[in-house]
Amino acid sequence: MTVDTPTLDRLSINLATVRQQWGLREAVEGCARAGIGAIAPWRDQVAAVGLAESARIVRDHGMRVTGLCRGGMFPAATPEGLKAAHEDNLKALEEAVTLGADCLVLVVGGLPDGSKDIRDARRMVEDGIARLLEAAGPAGMPLAIEPLHPMYAADRACVNTLAQALDICDRLGDGVGVAIDAYHVWWDPDLEAQIARAGRAGRILAYHICDWLVPTTDLLLDRGMMGDGVIDLKRLRGLVEAAGYTGLHEVEIFSKDNWWRRDPDEVLATCIERHRDAS
Amino acid sequence: MTVDTPTLDRLSINLATVRQQWGLREAVEGCARAGIGAIAPWRDQVAAVGLAESARIVRDHGMRVTGLCRGGMFPAATPEGLKAAHEDNLKALEEAVTLGADCLVLVVGGLPDGSKDIRDARRMVEDGIARLLEAAGPAGMPLAIEPLHPMYAADRACVNTLAQALDICDRLGDGVGVAIDAYHVWWDPDLEAQIARAGRAGRILAYHICDWLVPTTDLLLDRGMMGDGVIDLKRLRGLVEAAGYTGLHEVEIFSKDNWWRRDPDEVLATCIERHRDAS
């Protein structure tokens, strides 16, 4: 599969990538300086600056917001916990609307404390998304279920394959789709078919990139820069685009011992270079 | 699903569980002392004692060998590498036969050095198993493909789901099946259907148990003792046995900071207790 060289206007920076170095304002300014026109912030980064001020910063710099990270974390051990999760998700929805985000990304949550019942957690996730959709639909905010790598099934997200996420979408109808993150799905033997399925259904709301390092030394915070690992990112982008996706490529790298320790302007320059040459 | 309490005669100890404390002889003697009647050794443990002597030790103690770990590691970057892998697998096969193992466990291998082509690695795996089967079939030694958790897709095994392993079995025919390891498959949204499918096809050759800890601090060497993590092991065993499996439950725990540092007799005593109460 041959793919074109992606232009800079297809690049978005998930602000987790520079979260140790910069707050939202500095990150937006840094992206603007580098010629990058899109970002995806995290809610704590927005909260640190304030929602209205964050929206102003984004608007003043003409930044597109490819997603707000994150809603989700639906399962809970008690009815009160479920209610609190729903209320927090309504707030996340409001923030996504205020920021003009393309979608609200959902990291759906894992097992409630003390539970070994992953099927029950998965039911809570689906119930939670259905309930959130009642508000997100009228608000016109797409919900992007992000299937997470199976190594996060217990503690972060019990939706672990694209097929599983798309099954949920099929049952819930309009207003919900998927965020396809290379790091989470690259290993899936059924990937090709499920990306095509997602595209046919018009469900691909976001495409995230980084790389899988060998060895990986930390389950959460050792993601690689594109080109430094083993994911065939050009092929993967080819599949996503062949499925009809025309959106941006959002770089999201958690890297406590490497990229989080570097000069953030250098990180962005590397993202630009690797997006062009290795993604 | 209600399951019975498993009796001690259903317990097997994969000798990786005590590999830091004991060699093969001490481990077999330790298991015998504890009233355990089955083990699964690793090839390096056998090599350290010698194959003939290992077989004698096993026989003298009346130990059943529920599997030899491991054949596999099929993909290679060069024809010479593929040939070397095949020859090494023929040796593993001979060792499994000599030890009277129930099966030769296959950890199939990941990406060859420098490769990002997981589909190609998967083709090499299937070719390699097919070739090994030409010798294993006549030798009467079942080959057990062990799908490994997706976090090992790059460097240990590019067969990552039970469905994928069973698809390979379907294409290869008789003499090959699967080792179902709770640690590797517990997260799978399609687990129930695939276990039933494996059972219908008579493909369940081994069942391995341990637990998934939260948090997990190391990708390879932080497996938990049954009951200490989040896997619903009783339900999982129920599914495997409902699918027709009547074999043993093999405890396999890699745990560099906990169980590998303890008195191995205590480790075995804990395995017995947790096998009974939490598996």
Automatic annotation (TrEMBL), chains A, B:
Indicate the secretion signal residues. none
Pfam families per record:
AP_endonuc_2
Under the heading InterPro entries, the entry gives:
IolE/XylAMocC-like, Xyl_isomerase-like_sf, Xyl_isomerase-like_TIM-brl
Which residues does the UniProt record annotate as the domain Xylose isomerase-like TIM barrel? 31-264
Which keywords fit this entry according to its UniProt record?
Isomerase
The GO terms this record gives for MF are: isomerase activity
**Source organism superkingdom:** Bacteria
Q: What is this protein called?
A: Sugar phosphate isomerase/epimerase
